[in-house]
């Protein structure tokens, strides 16, 4: 009986530990993703992770407007 009870307690403890790690990991991924969005297009306030994506977004959404100065030498 004691071994069965220890097994149940061990499983509950492990489940609680796993749930805590999943929650922490989810928050870390959200924080990292948010930190990666470093380029902001002022007209629509869309954030992009890199200049190439920024240029593609700009060319598709604002083809008639002159490109922002930070996109001058970016290859799409």
TrEMBL record:
One cellular component term from this protein's GO annotations in UniProt: nucleus
Domain Small EDRK-rich factor-like N-terminal: 4-37
Region (Disordered): 1-31, 48-76
Biased composition (Basic residues): 14-24
Record keywords, A-Z: Cytoplasm, Nucleus
Principal location listed in the UniProt entry: cytoplasm
Bias kind Low complexity: ranges: 1-13
Ranges annotated as biased composition (Basic and acidic residues): 52-62
Protein origin, superkingdom: Eukaryota
TM ranges: none
Record bears the keyword Cytoplasm: yes
Compartments (UniProt record): Cytoplasm; Nucleus
Protein name, UniProt field: Small EDRK-rich factor-like N-terminal domain-containing protein
């Amino acid at each position: 009986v004691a071994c069965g009870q220890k097994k149940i307690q061990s499983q509950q403890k492990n489940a609680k530990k796993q749930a805590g790690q999943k929650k922490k990991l989810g928050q870390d991924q959200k924080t990292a993703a948010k930190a990666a969005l470093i380029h902001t297009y002022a007209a629509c306030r869309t954030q992009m992770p890199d200049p190439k994506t920024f240029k593609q977004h700009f060319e598709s959404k604002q083809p008639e407007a002159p490109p922002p100065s930070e996109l001058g030498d970016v290859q799409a």
